[in-house]
Specification:
heterotrimer, A mainly alpha (about 270), B mainly alpha (about 325), C alpha/beta (about 260), A: about 270 residues, mainly alpha, MetI-like fold, globular, C: about 260 residues, alpha/beta, Rossmann fold, 10 strands
């Protein structure tokens, strides 16, 4: 039996190796300088790159983080500082439930709230959808990180005449900062790869665009359109875009882990 | 008390109110309020947008199979079937694997191996859905076609589950990719549930002369049962709502069939594929109703899972890092 | 030594009852802490002595379900009065806990300055001077003066505890509450803290909770004995230890229980 569970673990790790392996092999061969600096060329032609998608990903995810992180961190602080009552229980429960909401549902929600009234697709709507996905997760992880701060520190600050807000921000949140940053990075990593909520919001764009009120391309949308398209050249670019996207996500995840480790000595 | 003694001039007055404190609390409360409001807004918006379809088709929407945008007749039964079928198929593959990983990591693996394997499994959870989809199209489907389906047919070809020509995009491909996607998720949550089982449970069984395995089977797993079931249900919630990879692999055909080799459809995939093509208000409304059903189902499933997990690991944000 | 201007300051608990929910852990305690003296609060664990101490600077009400009846008078002013800001109160009553609690993200200097900065209105030079003075009073200056910008976590346990005392002293409180301050220290560290009590009582009114009877005898002028939430007896330390009035007190100090 012990061997069996060991083998099962091995299989799970093997799956990761196979997926990453293919990604690297198929993607790396298509990566070149043009891939990063050129925009897509018309269908069927060779060459071109995904510069617009890279920039688009950074902009959309960045705006989403600007919206989502403050709300998420604030909610997490609320749960850790004042969340022992009934309202806290409700917020915690809703956060966990929203954490499992299909991202496509959030996508059509953002469509009804932003795209329909504005009359056209926009990167901003995509950012809002991603922010909605981000908040519950950031809230819960922030809460966990803040709770790791010993209660004695909070008491020491209060006994020193610190007001509650200052204790919370200057002592408690400051002490948990590495953990909070980690949860932010993990949250950003997660939304960076999201595609479904962007289908009817950011939509995608074949050209370069940096206006958040206009449709915008992202790496994830690029992988979807090119991966499901009919041309070999597109498939090649899809693998390359997937590799870059995965690299971005891994970089964020690893940085997050490293940040936590360097503070606490060892990750949990 | 006061007998006229001079009070030191720099002694601060006790009287005062900390207005900033109250402001701080109010601000945080306002931010926290955003989550319940969001849930209510999501629900309200979906119901409002789906209302034309709801009033037009009633509950019939759930079990009729005709999906004809031109005639303006919509029934979601094939998508509901496909969603359930692909998710259950995924659970069938994923649950043994995920529980095996979790039990191995918490109970049997050498200490030095725990962190790296847990980390690698969590990395699987970090891979974007669309990348799984891409991998599924170009690696998984050829693999299934070449090495899995022929021998499977050889053994079980007579059952209704393996009928028809296998083109690639199918219930099977969708189920397998979903399984791969939810393994890390179920494994991570189960692992945290098992870690929350007090070691006294384990030691009590070992102290009575049980082997490691008997201890796991008779003490640890029963103690964490509610949490483990919760982890599986959580995985189910993920699978039900998963969009991109399934859309890219399941074949997207409005049909109900028992054969896993045939294309099928899921609710999430239908919304993803057809939402931007919906030309009439009724069509759009029908898609909103599909979204609404999906939302309600996942909310219920997730709420159930959370309550079960909280019974073992009280109030913790179990698995939130693995999301 | 001329008595300071606030020689008349005193701290007094009047019919103070502390509760968690409906459970009273300190019952109807009235006691007066004379200015510029050390009062030890002793008793077996669970007797409510720490909770009592936390009522004096209104920390008890921060605990889950914690509330009080009766009151505490500081200088004759009711600290539980509706208009009183507990934050202001705690700036006048410093507190040191069982375990050292240096702020881990701050340097040694910043730790001591923390209580000053929260009050604001001081120039850099004034803060520098106040930090040095507090560290000197806590007998830590010579050991840390060359590494003020280092993390407070680099200090030993005993040094950390004296740092916490310095941090409590820096804002110039009138009262110092010590909650088993030597519980986690080795004998040498304990001795330093006890010596400090003697030096500091000339400037501050000190209340020290301890479960160590020898320590109470060594450092305090007055001793209060708590048992099961009741104040059994209070008096001058040598009297309480040599001829206790209550049987329970005698039983405790002769080691028959506790």
């Amino acid at each position: 039996m012990t061997t069996l569970v060991g083998v099962l673990s091995f299989v799970a790790v093997l799956a990761l190796a196979v997926i990453l392996g293919y990604l690297v092999v198929k993607g790396a061969s298509s990566l070149d300088w043009n891939f990063f600096v050129k925009n897509p060329v018309p269908a069927g032609q060779a060459g071109g790159g995904v510069a617009n998608a890279i920039v688009g990903t950074v902009i959309i995810v960045g705006v989403a983080a600007l919206i989502g992180l403050p709300i998420g961190i604030g909610t997490g602080l609320y749960l850790a500082e004042y969340g022992s009552g009934r309202f806290g229980w409700i917020v915690r429960f809703v956060a966990d439930v929203l954490n499992g909401t299909p991202s496509i549902v959030v996508g059509i929600f953002a469509w009804t709230w932003l795209v329909r009234p504005m009359g056209h697709f926009s990167a901003l709507a995509g950012s809002v959808a991603l922010a909605v996905l981000m908040v519950p997760m950031i809230a819960r992880t922030t809460e966990e990180m803040v709770r790791l701060v010993p209660h004695s520190l909070r008491e020491a600050a209060l006994a020193l005449g610190y007001p509650r807000w200052r204790t919370s921000l200057r002592i408690v949140a400051r002490t948990a900062l590495a953990g909070i940053l980690t949860s932010c990075l993990v949250g950003i990593a997660r939304i960076a790869g999201e595609t479904a909520p962007l289908l009817f919001t950011a939509l995608g764009n074949l050209n370069f665009s940096s206006s958040i009120l206009q449709p915008m391309q992202t790496l994830s949308l690029q992988v979807f359109t090119y991966g499901t398209g009919p041309f070999d050249e597109w498939h090649r670019l899809a693998w390359a875009a997937a590799l870059v996207l995965m690299g971005l996500v891994l970089l964020l995840s690893l940085t997050a882990r490293w940040a936590l480790r360097s503070r606490h000595g060892a990750a949990r | 008390m006061d007998d006229g003694s001079p009070v030191a001039p720099d002694r601060p007055a006790l009287v005062g109110r900390n207005a900033v404190d109250r402001l701080y609390r109010a601000a945080l409360t306002g931010l926290a309020l955003s989550l319940p409001l969001l849930l209510v807004a999501l629900l309200a918006e979906l119901v409002a947008s789906a209302w034309p379809a709801i009033t037009r088709f009633g509950v019939r929407f759930l079990w009729t199979s005709v999906w004809d945008p031109v005639a303006g007749v919509f029934g979601a039964a094939p998508m509901i079937f496909g969603t359930l079928a692909s998710s259950l198929l995924a659970l069938l593959f994923a649950v043994p694997l995920a529980l095996g990983v979790a039990i191995y990591l918490t109970e049997f693996s050498p200490k030095w191996l725990r962190q790296p394997v847990a980390f690698l499994v969590e990395l699987l959870a970090a891979i974007p859905s669309v990348v799984y989809g891409l991998w599924g199209i170009f690696v998984l489907i050829p693999f299934l076609r070449g090495y899995v389906v022929p021998p499977l047919r050889g053994v079980l070809g007579w059952t209704p589950f393996l009928q028809g020509v296998f083109y690639g995009n199918s219930l099977l491909a969708g189920g397998v990719i979903l399984a791969i996607m939810i393994v890390p998720y179920i494994a991570a949550v189960s692992r945290e549930v098992l870690l929350a089982v007090p070691s006294s449970q384990r030691e009590a069984a070992l102290g009575m002369g049980a082997t490691r395995w008997e201890a796991v089977w008779t003490a640890v797993v029963p103690y964490g049962r509610a949490g483990l079931i919760g982890a599986v249900i959580l995985g189910l919630g993920r699978a039900l709502g998963e969009t991109m990879a399934v859309t890219m692999l399941i074949g997207n055909r409005h049909d109900i069939g028992l054969s896993v080799l045939q294309p099928a459809y899921t609710m999430a995939a239908a919304v993803a594929n057809e939402f931007s093509e919906a030309t009439t208000n009724l069509y759009l409304s029908a898609l909103f109703e599909v979204g609404l059903i999906l939302f309600v189902v996942t909310v219920v499933v997730n709420a159930l899972a959370r309550l079960m997990i909280w019974r073992v690991a009280r109030g913790t944000a179990v698995g939130s890092r693995a999301l | 030594m001329a008595p300071p201007a606030d020689a008349r300051l005193q701290l007094e608990a009047v019919r103070l009852t502390a509760l968690y929910g409906r459970r009273a852990v300190v019952k109807d305690v009235s006691i007066l802490f004379p200015a510029h003296s050390v009062t030890a609060v002793i008793g077996p664990s669970g007797c409510g002595k720490s909770t009592f101490l936390r009522c004096l600077n209104r920390m008890h009400e921060l605990s889950e379900g914690g509330w009080v009846t009766g009151t505490v008078l500081l200088d004759g002013a009711d600290v539980y009065d509706a208009g009183v800001d507990p934050v202001q109160l705690r700036r006048r009553i410093g507190m040191v806990f069982q375990r050292p609690t240096p702020f881990p993200t701050m340097t040694i200097y910043d730790n001591v300055a923390a209580g000053l900065r929260v009050n604001g209105g001081r120039s850099r030079g004034e803060v520098d001077a106040a930090v040095e003075q507090a560290l000197r009073r806590a007998a830590l200056w010579d050991e840390v003066k060359d590494r003020l910008k280092k993390s407070a976590l680099d200090l030993s346990g005993g040094q950390q505890q004296r740092l916490c005392i310095a941090r409590a002293l820096a804002p110039e409180p009138e009262v110092l509450l010590l909650d088993e301050p030597t519980a986690s220290l080795d004998p040498a560290g304990t001795q330093r803290i006890e010596e400090l009590c003697h030096e500091l009582k000339h400037r501050y009114t000190i209340v020290i909770v301890t479960h160590n009877l020898q320590q109470a005898g060594r450092v305090s002028d007055y001793t209060a004995f708590f048992y099961l939430g009741d104040l059994v007896e209070v008096g001058r330390t040598e009297e309480l230890f040599t001829k206790p009035a209550q049987e329970q007190t005698e039983a405790y100090i002769t080691g028959r229980f506790g």
